[in-house]
Known about the structure:
Layout: H1 8-28, H2 32-36, H3 39-49, H4 54-64, H5 68-88, H6 92-109, H7 114-132, H8 141-145
Amino acid sequence: MQTIWLSGAEWCAVLRIGLGLWWLESWRHKDKKTWFAGGGIAWAAGIADKHRWRVVRTGFDRLVKPRPRLMAYLVAYAELALGLGLVLGLLSPIALVAGAVLNLVYLVLMIHDWAEQGQNLMMALISLAALGAMSWQSWSLDGALGLFR
Length: 149
């Protein structure tokens, strides 16, 4: 594979790191006080209540609604962990799969909002490309530690 400036593996690492920075921005821009007080989950509950797919409404009501504080922390710290894992290249394949799953959850929840879909689809696509290209081969703790060869 011929590339400009960097090797193919290094370009894949750029994708992985960029995706990690995107997750860190998702963490950074949250109003933590409102989010952890249940604001984010309350907003999502309003979306789920009007969702066109019954399975989404039912799943949200059974899994998320009874645990708003736990879910708020889970979502926020998952975004932080994904960002750090991808930027540092630590447990990268796990972070890439988890990130793609989280983006698909967001995608399904926000199926009617095309503005959100672009971000979630792009992040999921980058996750899949970075996973398939084994983007942890360069510039990563995984590579330095010999993990996931």
